[in-house]
UniProtKB/TrEMBL annotation:
Residues 48-121 form the Type II secretion system protein GspI C-terminal domain. The lineage of its organism: Bacteria, Pseudomonadati, Pseudomonadota, Betaproteobacteria, Burkholderiales. This is Type II secretion system protein I. The gene is gspI. Its main location: membrane. It is found in: Cell inner membrane. Type II secretion is composed of four main components: the outer membrane complex, the inner membrane complex, the cytoplasmic secretion ATPase and the periplasm-spanning pseudopilus.
Amino acid sequence: MTLRRLPRPQTGFTLVEVLVALAIVAIALMAGSQATSALVVNATRQTDVMLGHVCAQNELVKARLSRQLPAFGDTQSVCEQAGRRYQVVTTVSPLPNPQFRRVDAQVYDERYPVIRVSTIVGRY
């Protein structure tokens, strides 16, 4: 008498289950890469703002240390900090009291504005 073997139940995953798992992993990896990209952009922006602030403060301190009222108008200069080049536009404008002048330092990174810092300089 021959024993008949019963068919073994199929084990493993179906194609649909594998595709669903693959789609879930792909979505999770895409979300992770977008989050990482956002962190890199924010860190770069924070570095630019910090270095741009140093450049702007240098121009404002230069205006204060000159010991005279700065002339009205715009001046441009280049500031290099940590290997990066920034364009600094310094604008001197009048105030209602002629003994004081407003000095704005606007810092640009290639094309985009980074930071604007202002101060008031008075006659010594």
